[in-house]
Amino acid sequence: MNRRNRLRFSTDMIAKVTCLEEPGFSVEGRLANLSAHGISLILSKEIPVGSAVSVQWGTTNFIGRLVYCEPHGREYRAGLQVEDPIYDASPANKSERSPNSPR
């Protein structure tokens, strides 16, 4: 059973992942999927759980905290929780409804 309550988008984009608590420690990774407040990553090296990290792909950059990092074959699968939403998860018609319209 999937306990996630946010829509997730699958992807396979190359990213640079930098551990902000260990200057100079960066690893290459791939974005496996995205949700409004999280990123699933495949990393070439392990990063300690709880670390603040920066994930950069193209001109996009997000900062968050690693909530898990576990072996995944020869790589590591990691989960990053971000503070600022990656995308707007609110229903599209919510903003179109006037405050006086019936529900």
The string of secondary-structure elements, in order, is EEEEEE
Instruction: Label the CATH architecture.
Output: Beta Barrel
Number of strands: 6
How many helix segments? Answer: 0
First CA to last CA: what distance? 31 Å
Q: Low-confidence runs (pLDDT<50, min 5 residues)?
A: 92-103
Could you tell me the radius of gyration in angstroms?
16 Å
Question: Do you know the CATH topology?
Answer: Thrombin, subunit H
The 3D shape can be described as globular
Question: Which structural category do the helix and sheet elements fall into?
Answer: mainly beta
- The portion of residues forming beta strands comes to over 45%
Strand order of the largest sheet: 1-2-3-6-5-4
The CATH homologous superfamily is termed: predicted glycosyltransferase like domains
Structurally, the number of domains stands at: 1
Q: Biggest sheet: strands, sense, closure? A: 6 strands, antiparallel, barrel
CATH class: Mainly Beta
Mean pLDDT: 80
- The percentage helix is under 10%
What does this structure look like?
The chain has about 100 residues and is mainly β. The protein has one domain: Thrombin, subunit H, CATH 2.40.10. It is about 0% helix and about 50% strand. The protein contains no helices and six strands. It is globular and about 30 Å long. The relative contact order is 0.21.
